[in-house]
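Box 3.1 A note on notation
Throughout this textbook, protein chains are presented in two layers. The first layer is the amino acid sequence; the second is a token string describing backbone geometry. Keep the layers aligned when reading.
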Amino acid sequence: MPSGTPLAYENMLPEISEAHCRIYLPGLSENINVDKRFLKHRLGQFYDLCVRARLRAPGNEKQDQVWTKEGTGLDVLPMDTKRKSKRKQVADYQIEYSIDGGEWINSGLAIERKRFEDFYNSVLFKYDNFMDEFEAFEQDPELFDFRIIVEGRVNQVLNNIPVIPTICKCCRFCEAYHNNKKGIHRYCCTFDVLAGKAEEPKKVDPTGKCDFCIPYVKTEKELGDIRNRLMAIIEDFENMGYHISFYDSREMAMGFVPDIAKRYFVANYDRLLGL
């Protein structure tokens, strides 16, 4: 682009295409590292000037937890229903782009939002359900990447370990559970499941009293075993290509969404621009 030429869609797109060809077609680049730096810089300018982003969210997101335009700086629209789009609603959010004021297109990125308590429960107590979400993502031809955003630091996940799932699979019918009006009861009978020592909690008579409904304090070794299991599951997700990001709070997570949208566009420009 000649010096002094204003940055505009019609000027930048040919430059991006030419730089892309120099990098990926053999023999065209005199200095591939210089070309890569130029391309990344120009793509950032192109995004800022020519690309708009917005979010799509399913209608079942809890209103007190849903990401907002005020928090993300992006419009948040409901996802199309399965009947209209012929696609299952996957994850909590999907990013769409409009390039140079054109038609909105799916970015290919699905985002699953989790509070740190939800993330803990999902990976330890509802692992199969969580994997069903990944399977739905894999089957969607319009989605290419899956990211998990946890509203909480990794240390919160590892150090604030709840005692049980919201409702114990074994003790949900016992009198001690129904008589407990102060929140979550501590059921020691589920610990062997948490620690990976048993597949199911100890069985109790659902019509009688649960002899195991007593407060239980885990030892440091037991807490360490659960932390190690959590870390192993997180590493497994990363190895499967499902990236996990931890943010200090819901507000911080929302604040990073525009940056996530921009970085994803820059990383996947060739597919999104049809190069």
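The CA atoms of residues 148 and 244 lie 5 Å apart. The first strand starts at residue 51 and ends at 57.
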